[in-house]
Amino acid sequence: MSWRNVKLIFMREVLDQLRDRRTLFMVAVLPILLYPLMGIGMFQMTAIFSEQPRTVVILGADNLPDLPLLEGDHFARAWFRISTDADKLRVISDAPETAPSADPAVNEARAKVLEQALQMRELLKRRVDGENELEAAREAKRPIDEVLALESKVHQLIEPLSQRFHASGIQVLIIVPPEFKQNLLHLRDELGRRGADDKVLAPIDYPRPLIVQNSADEKSVIAHSRVTEVMREWERSLLRKYLRESGLPEHLPTPINPTPIDLAAADQVSANVWSKLFPSLLVIMALTGAFYPAVDLGAGEKERGTMETLLICPATRTEIVLGKFLTVMLFSASTALLNLSSLGFTGKYMASLASGGGAASKFGDLALPPFSSLIWILVMLVPLASLFSALCLAFATFARSSKEGQYYLTPLLMVTMGLTVFCSSPAVDIEPFYSVIPVMGPALLLKGLLKATGPDMTLYMYAIPVLLTSVGYSLVALWWAIDQFGREEVLFREAERFDLRLWVKHLLRDKEPTPSFTEAGFCFLLILMLQFLSMKSMQMAMQVATPEEQGVLQIRLLLIQQIALIATPALMMGVMLTTSMRKTFSLRWPGFGRLGWAIMLPFALHPLVVELQASLQWFFPKPPPGLVEALKMMSSESLPLWLVILAFAAAPAICEEIAFRGFMLSGFSRAGKISLAVTLSSLAFGIIHMIPQQVFNASLLGIILGMMCIRSRSLLPGIAFHFVNNVLAILHGRIGETMPDTGIWSWLFRHSDGMLRYQPALLCLAALAAIALLHRLTRHPRIQTVETAPNVDSTLRVLSVS
Amino acid sequence: MITVERLSKRFADLQTGGFTALDGVSFNVQPGEIFGLLGPNGAGKTTCLRILSTVLRPTSGTAFVAGYDVAQHPAEVRARIGFMSNNTGIYDRMTAWEMVEYFGRLYGIPEAALQERIGQLFDRLQMNNIRDVLGSKMSTGMKQKVSIARTIVHDPPVLIFDEPTSGLDVLVARNVVDEIKSLREQGKCIIYSTHIMREVEKLCHRIAIIYRGQILAIGSREDLAEQYKQPDMEELFFQLIDEHEEALKATASR
């Protein structure tokens, strides 16, 4: 490979992109302008918002007690936590001492509002009266039609009331009942007299004020919440005043009243804000930055007819892809960095504006993260940008036109968005399992590193797996992009007409002995979807079952799931889409030898699997409690062993093998690469197991099962292996505890947390046996003629004896 | 210089299952010769030339260009050919000079020699007036000139032209044809595909008539006229195609 060519292509593509107005706009202009513009917009919005005070009307203001609630046409500032909030509520009261305004129009408007409020009070009074009447009628057991008539009368009053309230422009209406002041004073006096006759105060009740609002109207809701705050504060002060006047301690109603202490320094507050914003923005922008240049460099090049020009130049495909990949990566990284710095500086500037205005910002001063954090951002950006660039380039190369490219890349954007939203949730922190997931690892690590509390050593340790896996994923994606570029059917795809009817016809007409790659992929998606859809009904069935029934029901559901949702789709597709069931499902007698080895292999693998699982427990997230319950049931003594074996060993062995090693493996093998077929089928087999730890186990077993099937060209060894393997797992759970671990047995077994574990000596033996058996099972099949020769079985017999 | 033996190419196709674009084609081309591939659209001309330019891999058969097998040593082949078709476009956001310079550099021509060579090419093709014009601003004729300059910037011994004049007006087409003539005089080995009879008559020493992936006849104009007793090229062409169709029908009905 010539780096000179890579550099030449890279330089040309960069220059080409820089001459493209669209790219420049997306990469440079948009981020630089977007955040300041959004900042300006926010300022304007807050300005507009604060200029609109809401109208509160108080009727019966004369009846308010002597602790002043009002100050002119506002509530008293003392009752607000932030005193300027007082200006956000305009109060119109019927108190006679309110000074008339100099402007007659204002006076007139006030009078009008008051007039409407009075009318509303009248309606409200009628409604209250009506309700009382209705209550009395119900109490007195009046005839039903009389009660109904009263009911509808009350009901009819709501509509005009609400309409009038809406039309009046009043957001909150407070009606203070007559004699309210006197009632409160009476209460105070009673409180003062309480010591005299040493009696418990008789309950005192009196009419309370009404506060009218409309919770369906946003303005009314905001005004109401402010009024509530004011009233609460005012009420407390009033209570304190009365307590004081009665010779009681003021703090009586608030005996606990803790003092909060906030340890967050200003820079920590801002670090916290950045730790939430930066990782998500970095991920999304790295993808967006890769998206458009990739489409232009891949599909755009085809569309403009320069792809072939480039393909006939001496540069190799790898050099071309690398040159393009580096270009996309450069734009991805610069988009992300420009966005981040633009957001950072805008945020800081806005915060300084806000603090200059007097009110302290709740985000602190938004000081930019320290230098070490900035370095980490750069370090994490490299694997992110390279992963997205390679993925986008591969998709874009596959696409025929820019438009098609955008269709293919949208799902990628959505999946990434989903992951980002998940990562930005405060409850999610990096843990071993997340650290190896693409996108999530870097995002969560960065979130931890930017956090205010400062990173600890464990977090730095995570950097190793995160970086290693991210680089690994990028390399795989890059390899895929190069592979795409090497395929002539991808580079020279003609615009073909897609006709669903024709396609189905073609599928059913042009059947081949084994399924195609796409059909195998579709089979997997079908099974996955069926599993997903059946989850709900299975859950519901389990919920209605009594605890005693649950065990058997679980078994039944599992059997149904295996047969109907895993084996049946694969078999149906096999019948409909292939000509040879025998070839598709590898229905062939493998010989006693291979079958025997396949039955023996699980015995050797089982201890290794148990220990591997136990030693990797820290890595995976904890399984949900429901699943733990279900697994316990497998080992519970309440169910007969044969039933458990049927559901957890026999059914999966047959059904899963039919689907994954039968249909899918033979379909995936059509791509020509055995390793790819085995990897894909075992990944599919893993993914169907849903829970991360099981996904891992099943994928590993899937590789062994796949190799066995390919080499023996038969499904039977796999079924035998799968069955024995699952039986061993069931027995391990059921009778593992009863195995002896004393005396000579202590060399082989031990117990830990009520689980049978295996000692190193046994593990070494098992490993040796497993290697030998695997070697036997996965060696290449001999040529057909030799295999059918009569002496083969005897050789095998000799081998098995020795 | 070019030796093609029993070259075949099959494509997968959704509707018909598969499609044979090229079916056992054999021919060879010498230096200083223009070899014409004459056939209607979809006859397999482009597929054949794409295999020769290493962009496609043959399903079976071999092809040697300048002594290298196209399937085994594609990079060596690409360094020794100039390929131009109506699919080899030019970059919109590059000037004429930049475009030719870029490909010259990819061919590994030393910088000083490259600048001199491009200067000569621009003089010869009368392109100095479009030297700094962006590809998106060029007329079809200007683009074609840039394409020719790009094709011959590394002075390759083998030149492959796939319908270079299709979609051009007569004036531009004439310029292209004249340029190819002058390349022949320099002793280049040229393969030229077209569906236009007159160009073949004017340019080519030898002609292969290709139809449905097969070569129906091959030879110089005079040889063909003598062999099929038909002095008119166009008549000869239709006669061969008709005969082939009838032969196909006969085998199908048998």
Structure description:
The complex is a heterodimer of chains A (802) and B (254). Chain A has 802 residues and is mainly α. Chain A has 28 helices and eight strands. In chain A, the strands form three sheets. In chain A, strands 4-1-5-6 form a four-stranded mixed beta sheet. In chain A, helix 2 runs parallel beside helix 9 (317-356), helix 18 (547-577) packs parallel to helix 22 and helix 20 packs antiparallel against helix 24. Chain A starts with a helix and ends with a helix. Mean pLDDT of chain A is 83; it is low at 357-361 and 783-802. With 254 residues, chain B is α/β, with parallel strands linked by helices. Chain B has a single domain (2-253), classed as P-loop containing nucleotide triphosphate hydrolases (Rossmann fold, 3-Layer(aba) Sandwich). Chain B has nine helices and ten strands. Chain B has helices at 45-52, 74-80, 96-106, 111-124, 140-152, 170-185, 197-203, 221-228, 233-253; strands spanning 2-13, 17-29, 34-38, 60-65, 68-69, 81-85, 158-162, 189-194, 206-211, 214-220. In chain B, the strands form two sheets. Chain B has a six-stranded mixed beta sheet with strand order 6-7-8-3-9-10, with helices on both faces. In chain B, strands 2-1-4-5 form a four-stranded antiparallel beta sheet, with helices on one face. In chain B, a hairpin with a 2-residue loop joins strand 9 (206-211) and strand 10. In chain B, helix 3 (96-106) runs parallel beside helix 5. The longest helix of chain B is centred in the last third of the chain and has 21 residues, at 233-253. Chain B is globular and about 65 Å long. The interface between A and B is medium-sized, with 29 and 32 residues.
